Please model this.
Amino acid sequence: MSKYKNIQEAAFEANRELPKLGLIIFNFGNASAADRNLGVFAIKPSGVPYEDLSAEKMVIVDFEGKTVKGKLRPSSDTSTHAVLYKQWEKIGGIVHTHSLYATAWAQSQRDIPIYGTTHADHSVVDIPCAPPMNDEMILGNYEYQTGLQIIGHLKEKGLSYEELEMVLVANHGPFTWGESPEQAVYNSAILESLAQMAYLTEQINSNAPRLKEALINKHFERKHGPDSYYGQ
Model:
């Protein structure tokens, strides 16, 4: 059995979930799964229809972005994944989509405001939108620079990748991550839902107020705090 079998299967399952959850159309998206001990990750091959994927077709890449195993070219976003895995040592899965509402916020170059308790269940801050890259970055190693843009923006905002597992990249789309590929997929679905709810909130009331701090903290802490009591 291949030593990469587990992450190939995990990446395959994560990618299969994306169209099921309505987060991608055609080939617009990718998911990856990392093995920290081996220093590699498995990622969707570029341009392959989701219905034609299999675990064996997942490409193995190291954290420098170099293909280790696989006959197909890895996703065009591979360098972004590689940068995030290399810099953020506690993540095991990454998802990138062009899901409708989250991408619309990214194209608007806006953070997603925290309007309700559903948002507060997952984050105590607005979902940040990293600004557009400068021309030099765009004309350079674009996908690599995208990873640096994400990392740099979270640092600028004083946010930890362990506490906030989602971000928008201006004029591009959403990226999510987690300790596992399953968590990254979950975060991607949550981000799309938050983006849709925030959009509808502003359609109903263009002056909708931000959620009160007391409610933000209450909802986040009851689910994630040291005295959490949500769930079993």
